[in-house]
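Email to the structure team, subject: SMP-30/gluconolactonase/LRE family protein model.

Hi all, the expression group asked for a predicted structure before they design truncation constructs. Nothing fancy, just the tokens so they can compare against earlier work. One-line instruction: predict SMP-30/gluconolactonase/LRE family protein, return tokens.
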Amino acid sequence: MPESHEQPRPRLSRRWLIRGVGVAAAGAAVLGSAGGTAAAAALPGGREDGGRQDKGKNPGKGKKVKITTLATGLKFPEGPVALPNGDVLVVEIHRKTLTRITPDGTTSVVAELGGGPNGAALGPDGRVYVANNGGMYAFDVGGFVFAGGIPADYTSGSIQAVDLKTGAVETLYTAADGHDLRGPNDLVFDSAGGFYFTDHGKSDGATGDKGRLFYATPDGKSIKQIAGGMEGPNGIGLSPDGKRLYVSETYTARVWWWDVTGPGRITGGKSLGGSGGGNFLYTAADYTNFDSLGVEAGGNVCVASMIHAGISVVSPKGDLVDFVEIDTDGDPGITNICWGGPGMRTAYITASSTGKLLKVEWPRPGLALNFAGGKK
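Reply from the structure team: attached below.
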């Protein structure tokens, strides 16, 4: 599909969007309704553990990149996975599918997943593993689509595995330690073949879950909680050497990290009261919701940033080294990034609120993920 030259729709003010994404749809709590004000709370600047708050010195402020619209008409796409043959997979929360997109923009459904597929990753057996939040309402704010709340048919969240050749779906996990998975969001495989995933939790507008982190094996036989008490954990990723685990929180717009001491074993404790026991890395200065994240080959953490739409690029020391604005028809819902193509220099980014998959030539190479087919 050629580069989009469509005129952007009338732009809504950020203040209007902040109010809008905190409303309720169909009587249910929606994105931004639980803990949203925490994202605007200022934190002290430099931390002994290396964490930082951006105080407005933004080396990428105003930077524009060439954006190619690869596919449109998607139903809240997330979790892009770049395949070695040039295709890209996404999950569609509101269509409840795993969807394939070819380089010419053609889309096809790989599998019907039900619930609310939220994140995806290639596993060691060649199957695609999906973090399924169990379902969300779709609602409109100023012509933009969002996702949230607890639909009437919700039962639990789950981890699923999809055979790309046959479309067969296997549900591996719906609970851990006797407690249901509430809203699995994103996942990443380590070199040992297991995977870490976030459980964002659910909110009904009156009460809300605390978020959790888990480690599981792809055979469906082992799952354990490794952290809890978090505020909307969303994106998750590993450093290039696999020795750090990064997690972004949506409503606080913070990034946390842990040392990885072995498969499924993490340690934090360097920040007093750190979310999930993690170490503080970075928080946004203005009102922003963080969604998923990816890691560059050089170690920078790239966090998809909503409302203030773009990609926040944060160093392992907690410095904002770049902010790449993603302006596509005014979409405030920039949710995910992954890399593929020659040299891992093509970024695939989901603009969820307008239903697009975007392609951007990235200034630095992305990290070749474990089992994703890229050369490590």
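Residues 14-361 form a domain with the Neuraminidase fold (CATH 2.120.10.30). The CA atoms of residues 26 and 137 lie 8 Å apart. Ping us if the truncation boundaries need rechecking.
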